[in-house]
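User: I'm putting together notes for a lab meeting next week and I want to include a structural view of one of the chains we've been expressing. I don't have a solved structure, so I'd like a prediction I can at least talk through. The sequence is below, exactly as it appears in our construct file.
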Amino acid sequence: GAKHRDIELPIEEFGQFVVDEWLVAGTPIRFRHHTDGLRMIGNGNFKFQNRIAHDYIKENKPELYERVVNEEVPKARFRSNSPSHWVHWVPYWEGPRPIIAEVTIEGPIYESWPPKRQVSLLGENPKAEDAAEILHPLAQRAWRRPVAMEELQPIVNLVQSQAEHLGDVEALKEGIVAILVSPSFLMVNPEDSEPHWRFATKASLFLEGTVPDNELYQAVQNERLDSFEEIRDDLIARIRSGRAETLLRDFPYGWLQLDRINFMAPDVDQYPLYEKKAISEDMIGEVLAFFRYCATENRPVPELVTADYSFVNADLAKVYGLENVPADSRFRRYEFTDGRRGGFLGMGAFLTLTADTLSTSPIHRAVYVMENFMGIHPAPPPADVEIREPDIRSAKTIREVLAAHQSDSTCAACHQAIDPFGYAFENFDPIGAWRDAYIGEVSKTQVTDGDRAAGDASAKVGRKARGKKQFVSIPVDASASFLSGAEYKDITEFRQLMKNDVSQKRIVRCFVTKLLTFANGIEPNNYSAIDAIVNKSAQYDYRIVETVAAVMDGPLFRETKHE
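Assistant: Thanks for the context. Below is the predicted structure for the 563-residue chain, given as structure tokens.
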């Protein structure tokens, strides 16, 4: 419907108004905000929002308007720093407020009957006596294999027995339900399906998240997807034609746990550039745009982690401190020249979902890097060990707190292996912005809130008066040494370590494991089969398309049962 609707509201009496709005069929409707008279939101397709208070106060109370614009608006978070934004005027509005009393949803409303979808499934004038001819193509598509008429006969009998009291159309619907509750539909790899049909199903779900189309059926039936080269060529064609959206979107979303990005969202009062919905969606968008580019351009798998570029928009540019980025929401490729960012390692999504509300955690970031990029699963801590979050309230750095934690011999061995994977990222605060120091409010000689103001990278070492408060600034130490003897002094040197041959192979192996987990729903443990895929990938410089094709051509993908 219309985005805006003007309604004349009575000033001294109640009035009732009926507003009709059209929605796209299937649109979910959720009323998530109180109808306080100035804002009511259902979802992206149903919105009521206005500037009543702003326009009225500007015209009738100019002194109040000037005070709010000059004193309050400049202090607002960046998303609401427009003078016309409703949030500035709600406290001052004394006029009538519309309240949503009732919402009635009617529909779906079709242009004609029967609707086109029903006609496409059942035909123009479906009869129960034609159930076999009507349901046979539906069964073949749902069961993803050839279906003999004899196999369908029990369902045909059901339809015809129900037609007398349900009618033809409703009886045929019962037949469709029977098709959809069959194990042949519900199971991805049912035992009654031949290997090539199972491969078609697996490939289609893996790439597109749906049942195979006729083109894929024909390809597997004619043995055109029996070799690595054929699978690779088909994969390239599907990526270019937009028929691999599940691989390009759902796989990285699940692999990188992007659904957790706001599990412990940064405090917007301490980190005003972070607004839960907007910035987190931008951070997720950066990941997906970057992965899509790398897959489409068939870049090497390790480049996903170690690239010197990413895709940013105007809001992310503010967080990352970037210049010369157009002021819009479009994601554009950006080359990082300082060695700090690029690829997954420098993205706000990773840096935010591994932080807490007010502080960063080298341990959380280390475990994330190990498990999702390096394929290393650190052992869980003993059940009787108390895990303490990084803290500098006693004028200690995060490193000193962790060092004290490691004084317990039961903790030291694990942390010596884990922590070096996390210290490198300490220059990034909980929203992924760069910082050179931890800054905390102090009372006499003690730090009372060590990480809250850590996003202020301009502070100098020592105390600095700010009004009646004092703050201490402690330089970030982002250096560490691995048990292997390799060491780094900052994020740029850590990123270089991720480019050596051992790390590159680990990244590819982890990528292969994540692909197989996504395809099968369980992490594989047939290490020799995984090694074979990695070796095949190495023949093509670890490029993404060839690596995915090697996964699909391998036994862990093709076979019904896995080890």
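A couple of points you could mention at the meeting. The two ends are 54 Å apart (CA to CA). The beta strands are 39-43, 46-49, 309-312, 332-335, 437-443, 446-447, 462-466, 469-475, 480-481, 487-488.

User: Perfect, that's what I needed.
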